[in-house]
Input
Amino acid sequence: MNDSAGKRSVLRRISPTQWVAIGLSILAVVFVVENRGKVSVEILLITVTSPMWLILLAMFIVGWIAGVLTTRRARK
Output
């Protein structure tokens, strides 16, 4: 068995879902690197200064939690 055949067999074992996860992970890393600048956000009387990617991540998590809390579960 040569090296090229061994590499092909490893690549074939990766499912399409795993390829999507790898792609999204790469996009997330690029997003963080591109958005390292600090921003100030005012929430009522509190001002928070943080990298933009961290603020956006926090808002994503808040939205995800709100979605989980407001969706109805399917009946079994």
Summary: The first helix runs from residue 3 to 12.
